[in-house]
Amino acid sequence: MFASLIGTTIEFFDFYIYATAAVLVFPVLFFPAGDPTSATLQSLATFALAFFARPVGSALFGHFGDRIGRKATLVAALLTMGISTVLIGLLPTYAQIGVMAPLLLALCRLGQGLGLGGEWGGAVLLATEHAPPGKRAWYGMFPQLGAPIGFFLATGTFLLLTAAMSDDSFFSWGWRVPFLASAVLVAVGLWVRLSIEETPAFRQVLAARSRVRLPMATVLLSHPRALLASTFASLATFVLFYLMTVFALSWGTSALGYTREQFLWLQMVAVLCFAATIPLAAVHADRTGRRRTMIIATVLIIAFGVFFAPLFVAGDMAGTLLFLVVGLGLMGITYGPLGTLLAEQFPAAVRYTGASLAFNLSGILGASLAPYIATWLAGRYGLASVGGYLVVAGILTLVALLAIPRDQAR
């Protein structure tokens, strides 16, 4: 459980420091000077690139995870993510090398996407395939906790840097510190990952000689319904999270007039609710079923979308904190059992590929362009349209969850 948690914490820390920098740093340093809104949208577009790389990472690392084992594949995924992140911290800016700067940034972002595409599914299997009877959602919750912990560490790092140095120093070199510091975290993660054993489920696959030659082809040809339902069952989770983090930070520090420090502190408090509701949801999921828990969470997300605009307003710190607490609290409820639910939809011989592919295809649909779409909708039609966007995602997820057979979700 600790090995799955430490790996996803590092991966999500790397991912979220990019998300924060995509709003606060990259529009200034990596794109031509001019319209600030245009630079932000271009920066968010590079943010989206990783989500299109993640299914490729799912196919690549999933193939080896189902062929040679979970352990070795997870080590390779962690290295891919870590090296890409450290390289971002070493990149020259637009002022130094011109258009090559955003191109190199995009290339490193693709590397991050490849790494995370292979990391998440393997970490979930590492946990759930070691779980005793009746505790699968509880074990599967540990890699999910890596998301709020990684987000908390990433946001906390930027807050410390903001408090410790001037804006000039921060934009000159301070923003590089979180990316370079990732090297230390990756070293710790590798040490932990190299000390674990292969999962019992994969050892059974080896013993039964039931490995498939092309896991991706088997998933697409033999399990298309499970793949489709699992992809859309994750949709609202992704849309909600990236609205509450990347979009909220961008809109709150621009249109609503909050300072960077104010909004990061609000998000730091709210992410604690995200972390707290993950284990609560896992306990409920082990008692009543993963599918039922996620249906309840999705209905609540749809209701939250209706009240999105009235809660997120300028000049009301308490109201904005409530908005973030409720949104990220709901995120924990839907995210806690998600990994276990997806893993249960596929047999062990193709589980790494199937669960990873579903999760990351959903990332393309629900997360890659969510900050971009939400920024465009809010600018043109107001925040109520962003809430409507979340409602539509919730309805699609609800339909997908209802299509998942009950006996596969318990």
Automatic annotation (TrEMBL):
The chain crosses the membrane at residues 12-33, 39-62, 74-97, 103-126, 138-161, 173-194, 226-251, 263-283, 295-315, 321-343, 355-374, 386-404. Residues 1-410 form the Major facilitator superfamily (MFS) profile domain. It is a multi-pass membrane protein. The keyword Transmembrane applies. Pfam families: MFS_1 (PF07690), Sugar_tr (PF00083). It comes from the Bacteria. It is found in: Cell inner membrane. InterPro entries: MFS, MFS_dom, MFS_sugar_transport-like, MFS_trans_sf, MHS_symport. Keywords: Cell inner membrane, Cell membrane, Membrane, Transmembrane, Transmembrane helix, Transport. This is Metabolite/H+ symporter. It comes from Luteimonas vadosa. The lineage of its organism: Bacteria, Pseudomonadati, Pseudomonadota, Gammaproteobacteria, Lysobacterales.
